Amino acid sequence: MKIETEDYSIETNDQQVIIKGALRLQSPTAYDKPFESIREAITNKQDGLHVDISDLNFLNSSGVTSLARLVLDARKADVGFTLLCSEDIPWQSKTVSSLGKLNPKLTINFK
Amino acid sequence: MSNRSRLPVYGVYLDKADRKKPLSHIDFKFNPIDFIAHWQRCGATANYLAEFQAYNFDNRKKVTNIMSTVLNELIENAVKFSADAHQEASISIYNYGETLTLQCVNTTQLKQANKFEAFIKTLMETEVEELFLQQIMSAAEDDHTASGLGLITLKKDFNAKIGAKIVPDTERRLYTIYIKVVLDVNTLESL
């Protein structure tokens, strides 16, 4: 499944979720629909979920809240969660590392 | 707030005013309604101003990304929390060489002004990493229309110094919110 807009794309397949572009939606609730397929993947993928955000240049604070909710959902479901990030995108190295405190099973990799 | 004898002023607004003349200064004024109708204009404006401001940095790509992130959070806040979507709001950038000072101004109602004042006090008094996690947990439990994370992440991730002042407009029963964000140029290069 792929959601594609002028600003961002979210592709969910059997192996992983790839989010690219600039995600700056109006509120945390505005992320419910675009992130629906990721929530479903957390429910269905007992072997763990891989989310690649290494080409996500921007995520506003509403998006950070929504990403954190996914990390917490994975913790509740006891599903492993791996985030693939980029060291070249400043908000990722800073913000994402703080999310590790929300879920001991969150793995953060940088490329 | 109405019984207050002096203006509520926090953070960098309490510092001695910088009397240095800025190397450059940009004021961008907008009506929130325009951005509510076309939300992507918040990001487009942030990108445009960031690109201009990052021009003289060694790592232009990285600084553009940081500046755009900071500006976007300030613009989104001004749009979301303005009392009257037709009342002008503004964002200004002052380049002092060693620091960049950003100021965002918008008007709001008493309820929102009180809520903002309580938030800014917490931001000044609480360890920022702890506040970030508290805010995420609180936002995760409720369907908030705003995350409340914007200024927290600017302070936590980019070492931004933050200030705020709230000026009552008794005639119109509104409050003008000033938010100041000071970024250190060397820190931006080293992040």
Question: Please, could you describe this protein's structure?
Answer:
The complex is a heterodimer of chains A (111) and B (191). By secondary structure, chain A is an alpha/beta fold. Helices cover 32% and strands 32% of the residues of chain A. A 6-stranded mixed beta sheet of chain A has the order 1-2-3-4-5-6, with helices on one face. In chain A, strand 4 (49-59), helix 2 (61-76) and strand 5 (81-85) form a beta-alpha-beta unit. Chain A is globular and about 35 Å long. The two termini of chain A are 25 Å apart. The mean pLDDT of chain A is 93. Helix content of chain B is 46%, strand content 25%. Chain B has a 6-stranded antiparallel beta sheet with strand order 1-5-6-4-3-2. Chain B is of the alpha+beta class. Chain B contains 7 helices and 6 strands; from the N terminus they run E-E-H-H-H-E-E-H-H-H-E-E-H.
What is the strand arrangement across the widest sheet of chain B? Answer: 1-5-6-4-3-2
Q: Any idea what the radius of gyration of chain A is?
A: 13 Å
**CATH level 1 class label of chain B:** Alpha Beta
The largest beta-sheet of chain A arranges its strands as 1-2-3-4-5-6
Give the helix/strand class of chain A.
alpha/beta
The fourth-level CATH homologous superfamily of chain A is STAS domain
Structural class of chain B: alpha+beta
The overall strand count of chain A is: 6
How far apart the termini of chain B lie comes to: 39 Å
Q: Please state the average pLDDT score of chain B.
A: 91
User: Strand-and-helix sequence of chain B, N→C?
Assistant: EEHHHEEHHHEEH
Mean pLDDT of chain A: 93
Task: Give the helix proportion of chain B (percent range).
Answer: 40-55%
How many helix segments of chain B? Answer: 7
Shape of chain A: globular
Count every beta strand of chain B, where a strand is a DSSP E run of 2 or more residues.
6
Which architecture of chain A per CATH? 2-Layer Sandwich
Portion in strands of chain B: 15-25%
